[in-house]
Specification:
alpha/beta; disordered N terminus
């Protein structure tokens, strides 16, 4: 076990630092973390765009704080050498999402509704207060999960990622869906509760309960950064044969 691990830490988090327990696909023989940022886009985070969802003051403050915290985590990941993977919704009017339209009371066989979020090429699809750096992975999805219909699984595997931190918007929707798929595909999942938010605080809390019960370990951003730093201090050089997380 890596020296200096807090004895009071959740033992599952401590296991992520155990170099003697190889993670599937890790080229170093030990678990390599990645930060997966989900849907931090204007249509999901800009107060003027999410106002129609009826957020109260508590929820509005939580979204603002989560976006700020996500930006800090991105900076910390880059400084620590943790790959940052950007998952974004790209709604294509040429391929309407029938079931989503139906669920919201629209005609599933009609055109994409005018209020569809994150239409490709629109201002609403732009990143909000944080953005990918050159060379960082971007994965465009059409549904909730970053794994659905994308090559995210292959990218993480080829990069030797052993566990993932999932952050973004919103907790009960695309964060939960992406985290759950990551877990089902074999990656241990860590979700910092202060780096995700929902448009209703009770919904956020309920989603975290579901994640903690069935998907991953719910922690906070400070502990996540501590894990990254301890992992980096104990890491070995990645062989030249290992592929970085690719650029889209």
């Amino acid at each position: 076990m890596t020296g200096g691990v807090d004895a009071g830490r959740d033992p599952r988090l401590a296991q992520l630092l155990d170099r003697g327990s190889p993670a599937a696909g890790s080229p170093t023989g030990g678990p390599r973390p990645a930060l997966v940022v989900v849907d931090v886009q204007r249509d999901f985070g800009d107060p003027t765009r999410i106002a129609p969802y009826g957020l109260d003051d508590r929820a509005s403050a939580a979204v603002d704080a989560a976006v700020t915290r996500i930006g800090s985590l991105v900076d910390e990941a880059r400084a620590t050498g943790v790959p940052v993977v950007w998952v974004e919704l790209g709604s294509d009017p040429a391929r309407p999402w029938r079931s989503s339209t139906w669920l919201r009371g629209g005609n599933p066989d009609g055109p994409m509704p005018d209020d569809e979020p994150c239409r490709i090429g629109t201002e609403g699809a732009e990143w909000y207060r944080t953005a990918p750096a050159p060379g960082e992975t971007r994965v465009v999805k059409r549904g909730y999960s970053g794994f659905l219909g994308t090559d995210l699984e292959a990218r993480l595997t080829s990069a030797g990622i052993g566990w993932v931190t999932v952050v973004g918007l919103t907790t009960e929707c695309c964060v939960l869906a992406t985290a759950q798929d990551a877990m089902q595909l074999g990656w241990p999942v860590v979700v910092p509760q202060d780096a995700t938010a929902a448009y209703d605080s009770d919904v956020h809390d309920a989603a975290l309960t579901l994640i903690d019960l069935n998907v991953g370990v719910v922690t906070d951003a400070d502990e996540t950064v501590a894990l990254w730093r301890e992992s980096a201090s104990a890491s070995v050089s990645v062989p030249a044969s290992a592929s970085p997380v690719g650029v889209r």
